[in-house]
Amino acid sequence: MLFWLTYLADTFIGFNLFRYITFRAGGAFFTALIFGFVFGQPLIDLLRRRQRHGQPIRDDGPENHLLSKQGTPTMGGLLILSALVVATLLWARLDNPYVWLVLLVTVSFGLIGFADDYAKVSQGNHKGVSGRVRMGLGLVIALLAAIGAMVIHPPSLSGHLAVPLFKDALINLGWFFIPFAMFVIVGAANSVNLTDGLDGLAIMPVMIAAATLGVIAYTVGRVDFTTYLDVHYVPGTGELLVFTAALAGGGLGFLWYNAPPAAVFMGDTGSLALGGALGAIAVATKHEIVLGIVGGLFVVEALSVIIQVLYFKRTGKRVFLMAPIHHHFEKKGWAEPQIVIRFWIISLVLALIGLATLKIR
Fold first, then answer.
1. DSSP-derived secondary structure letter, 199
2. Three-class SS of residue 63?
3. What is the DSSP string of 247-302?
4. For position 69, what pLDDT does the model report?
5. What is the C-alpha separation between 218 and 222, in angstroms, rounded?
6. Using CA atoms, how far apart are residues 108 and 249, in angstroms rounded to an integer?
7. How far from the centroid of its chain's Cα atoms is residue 25's Cα?
8. Largest Cα–Cα distance of the chain, in whole Å?
9. Cis (ω within 30 of 0) for the bond into 179?
């Protein structure tokens, strides 16, 4: 919205600043951060009044959670989403289709998560909305997003899969790109959802991954950078840096209240939305495979659940003491902050490896 001030640059030269994506990304970051600080506590107070018993805790989870996390309100993802949407609409170019694609995916998955959180709180159990319903709705959203991406992408990239580490390597998937993109978006949403099990565990890796994808989006959206690095040029994606900066600012504001011991959980409202956002950005920038590296922590969390379920059905035994894998380390005696901070470190290392793929060709 503020981009339109550039048309008044003739009257005040300072308005030229709004032409620069990096300047507007900084503005989006601080807008979302301040939004989180200002509205965080009032939202938590409201959620506590509405949710007398807080988020229902799984009785088959770690025993200490029944004591340490009982009564903590959920739906804190509303704070992140509100800050993200306000900051993006304020600072991003609203004539950019990639911004709307990612924003609509994020909000749509957030609505699925909100319905699930509401069902859990109102019914007083941890089951919420049926898994089939959530998955079905997620697939519909991802389908529309995949089709939208194919329409928006330049003809030379539409329906193609970019392969990192190889110069201009593209695999033409044709219409098979749609189910592939759906898998990326839905997989990312559910992987982040599975990771969100300890105070602060999911939000920092999400911010790290978003910041990394923001740098990638800015890079592939500039023809001079792509020429130098020998990567594919996706015109218009640079504007997604504003979105990722807003996500990082909103996430940091939320972390202020989610740091151990958490005053609020993000719930499915936040985890599904943020995971969907990461998947949509990866599809928009043609860096779906790199997302698997940058978001490697989320991949491992999801795989630990899949392996545990399949192995148990086959043998009646468990590979991990408990899945997702962060609960396995809890069972082994690791303290919650120890797990969280070590997982943050792993996320940062994976993000740096993902960024390195831009140069290693």
1. T
2. coil
3. HHHHHHHHHHHHSSSPS---HHHHHHHHHHHHHHHHHHHT-HHHHHHHTHHHHHHH
4. 64
5. 7
6. 20
7. 17
8. 74
9. no
d(CA 101, CA 105): 6
Instruction: Assess contact for 228 and 11: CB atoms under 8 A.
Output: no
Strands (E), 83-187: 160-162, 170-172
267-285 and 240-258 helices cross at what angle (nearest 10)?
Answer: 160
125: left (phi over 0), alpha (psi -120 to 50) or beta: beta
Q: Tokens for 30? A: 């601080």
127 pLDDT band, cuts 50/70/90, is confident
pLDDT per position as a tens digit, 172-188: 999 999 999 999 999 99
Burial category of 223 from C-beta neighbours within 10 Å (exposed 0-12, middle 13-18, buried 19 and up): exposed
Listed by start position, the domains of the chain span 2-356
Tell me the CB-side half-sphere exposure of residue 47, using CA atoms within 13 A. Answer: 26
Instruction: Give 172's strand partners.
Output: 160
Rounded to the nearest angstrom, the gap between the alpha carbon of residue 185 and the centroid of all alpha carbons in its chain is 10
Tokens in use for 190?
Answer: 């559910």
Q: 42: which residues sit within 8 A by CB, 6+ positions away? A: none
**In contact, 268 and 112? CB cutoff 8 Å:** yes
At 320, the amino acid letter reads F
DSSP strand E in the chain: where? Answer: 160-162, 170-172
Q: How far apart are CA 168 and CA 198, in angstroms?
A: 40
C-alpha–C-alpha distance, residues 361 and 351, integer Å: 17
Amino acid at 184: V
Q: Are 328 and 320 in contact (CB under 8 A)?
A: yes
The tokens of 125 are what?
A: 């159990």
Structure tokens at 184: 């990326």
The structure's pTM equals 0.95
Q: What share of the chain is helix, strand, coil (3-state, %, to 5)?
A: 70, 0, 30
Q: Comparing C-alpha atoms, which of 112, 97, 89 is closest to residue 35?
A: 89
Q: What is the pLDDT of residues 271-288, one digit of tens each?
A: 999 999 999 999 999 999
Token pair recorded at residue 334: 């690791």
